[in-house]
Amino acid sequence: SPMPGWATSLYELREAVLRPRIGWGVYLGAASLVLVSLTSVRLGLFLLFFVAYFGGYPAIQFQERHHFHLEFITWWAAGFVVHQAIAKAWSLRQSLPALAPAARSVARAAAFSALTAAVIVFSLVIARQYQHGQALALLGSYVEAPRTPLDVPGGALPGMSPREWPQLLEVDLDQARCGRNPSVTFRYAAGVLNSDLSRTVTIDRLTRVSGVTRIFQPVFENYQGLEVSDSRDGCFAGAFHVRAPAPLPVLLGATLPPDWQSAPLYQRLADWESDPNRPPFVPLPALTTWTTVSAQPVSVGLFGAGTMVGDRSTSGYQATSPRVAAPAGARVFVRLSLSASRGRVCVGALNGTTAAWLTPAVPPSREMSFTVDETGGFMVAVANCNPVETAAPSRFRVSSAEYAIE
């Protein structure tokens, strides 16, 4: 709940209903637009603009506090779709609709859908081309700007007046000579009110070409120095103070692998687009081979979804997959479609001996990632995350489970 102790049960019910249905809002919104266009293309286009504008502007700073008030759009869409379905079913009890008006309505909706799809695809292509060009120029100006080596990488920038902040630093790492997941921490003075901006940048994706990976990071007043996690010879290739002769248009934190110029400099729509730089996903071991804490067999439905029963604990393991072999140091991505009908469950990954978490159990998300340790394997684990012991055992459903090893 937004405030401790305020309508807790209501927000628990909201979470139980909505969390397994993450992603439904897009389809409910699309269905409502099509239903409106059956009557009027003009109204459909107005609603499309309304949703695109108010649903799009929070992307500038996409945190929950920037978009929570727009949740009514999805609730309205869901209510509208349900209402129209019931109204249409009720009207069909009286008489069938006339063929000609129904055909015209369907034609309007088809034209609206085709126009909407064309506008969205065209806008996305143009926006991506523009952003790629702008990002290429901006990041290229970082790479080409004059720079001076830092004599003491672990120390503060010397001789900086208050008017000269912020500054841009570059740290170069050679991934081929580093261990897994090398990181750089930009450290600020502790104890200064609202000024400890310390941040750790981790390289968690392997590069397929040789060369240094450049980490650019703007730093501000009270910056004290940087720390490199990997002390192997050759891993740390240098730290530099970027001193452009003219002010750079904007200072961004960026991690540039050796082949960054050939990579797309925009985000993908993860639910509809695959990442060409990532190996294909393959199914995890069959759900019937998973082990449940209750020892009850997994019940597999008609479409392959598995229903599992756990226990009443607050945080105990509920189900684990068989061990999956993977090279030590490999990056693994797991997609698990998980919904709970009773209790709260979280998902994480254990190492090959179940002795440690590779990534701790957290509420389900579309995808989780982790790095395999020296055990050379992993096991997907579902665990309870109940605030208190429940009256009945957890019950949850896994409809799909797949992974990719990078």
What does the largest sheet look like? 6 strands, antiparallel
What is the CA-atom radius of gyration, in angstroms? 26 Å
Hey, roughly how much beta strand do the residues contain?
Answer: 25-35%
Count every helix, treating DSSP H or I runs of 4 or more residues as helices: 6
**H/E element string?**
HHHHHHEEEEEEEEEEEEEEEEEEEE
Uncertain runs are none
Give the distance, in angstroms, between the N- and C-terminal Cα atoms: 38 Å
Shape: globular
Q: What's the total number of strands? A: 20
- Which class do the helix and strand fractions yield? alpha+beta
- Overall average residue pLDDT: 88
Work out the helicity level. 25-40%
What does this protein structure show overall?
The protein has helices spanning 8-18, 24-37, 41-56, 64-67, 71-94, 99-144, and strands at residues 147-149, 167-173, 183-188, 199-202, 213-219, 223-228, 236-242, 254-256, 282-283, 291-292, 299-300, 306-309, 317-320, 324-325, 331-342, 345-351, 357-362, 368-371, 377-384, 395-405. Helix 2 (24-37) packs antiparallel against helix 3 and helix 2 packs across helix 6 (99-144). The strands form 4 sheets. Strands 9, 11, 12, 15, 18 and 20 form a 6-stranded antiparallel β-sheet that branches. Strands 10, 13, 14, 16, 17 and 19 form a 6-stranded antiparallel β-sheet that branches. The two termini are 38 Å apart. 28% of the residues lie in helices and 26% in strands. A hairpin with a 5-residue loop joins strand 11 (299-300) and strand 12. The protein is an alpha+beta fold. It contains 6 helices and 20 strands. The mean pLDDT is 88.
